[in-house]
Design goal:
The chain is mostly helical. It contains 19 helices and 4 strands. A hairpin with a 2-residue loop joins strand 1 and strand 2.
Amino acid sequence: MADQLVPLGKRSALLEKHSRKTIEASLYSFEHLLRYHLASMVMLGEKGIIKRENARAIVKVLLDLRERRPDKIDFDPSLETIHPTVERLVIEKLGADAGGDIAIGRARYEFGYVAEMLANREDSLEMLSCLSGLDASLRGLAGRTMDALAPYYTLHMRAEPITFGYYFAAINEGVQQNLRRLREAYGRMDRSNAGIGHIVPSALGFDRKRLGELLGFPTVGETSLYLYFNVDVAIDMMGALALTATQIGRFCLDLSLWTSSDLGLVRFGDLYSGVSFVMPHKRNPSFLKPIQHAVIHTKTVHGQALEIYSHTTPMKLTGLVEIPGLLHGALDEMRLAAELLAGAIESVEVDRVRGKALAEADFTQSAQLVHLLIAEHGASWRSAEQIIGRLVKDILAAGKTAQDITPESLSKLAGEALGREVKVKPASLRAALDADAIVRSRGDSGPAPEAVAAILEKQAATAAEIAAFIAAEKQHLADTWKRLDEVAKAL
């Protein structure tokens, strides 16, 4: 009678359109699920909670399953998640007496959640690696172009001259901030929630510290109720990813302008350029499209995860099951974005001649002329601004350019405005009108080439420290999984 309460059509939709998709979406954690089971067998066998021979037999089946890979296993959608199928396969192989304790004292969601967070921990390290690659590409490009003039734009209007190297070093400062932020979020994820049972811990006396050790965690969490779905650490990582995505997206908007036909300041290599079907001469920056998609996706799923979390009460824990998967997808998207952008940046050629021409156009030297009147002639800031504003207006009205300004014309205008004699030195005026000299005069935090070189030296030290952290963590996890296999096989 119970079966008749749910029409077959609706049941089929539930199984095929929900459960099967849920299973497929979580298969990325399959290997880590088996690792968690291996660690559980070691702990349970060592503690004498289950017989060692049974733990040993389960370990053998788990290792065999790992060789089959998930695409060779028929996961039953009626069991909702991947863990119950693994449990069924173990019991089918060993029988209920020997294999029935594989999930002792825990619920299916605990196994799935721990496995997904283990997978996301490694994916987060890979994301850090990819972003480190972008860091290296930006520093390389900044180093090659620290003396190449470029126009800066505010509200898409030309502003003071800078260099390409200064711009790319500034972008990379933000990238390194994101690397730090992601590393800190990784640290908050790096705490074991294995063996917490189901809302309350098992009465069988699990050794959670040993489980955490076997899984490579430096510390363990405290309350089972929190740890059963502590997805805040996943959302924390997604928040760091969203900020990373936002910065990358903003940078790519600048790149799309600089590579445009009208500006033509930047040219990407052939591998990162596409042609138009109707205008084959065009070099479209095609790589920007998947990056834009990744940026939008990452920011969207972060918001989605926050919404899910904020509308799921602490007593409705299983409502949070999709959040680790959202993090997995965001990490995957942002790895792609970082890899694409790093490669594209390495292929960049800048147009130094056009960059210099645009950097000197539209009276971008006006700010330096203001500084000249302040530094050498004692004018106040506002007075100097008014003098140079009038000068620029007169020059434009006469159809001339900044290069037509003479020491005499500036001296006369400044003297009339200040009510005293002003004598502008020809050398000072030449330096104030020379974009290269203007850039060299800004040496505190750039864009002077020597200042950019010092900035890049500091960034290289930061990059080396982060790279050492990533390498150490990757080695730690590789050693962890090797030791786990050894201990499990030696039961």
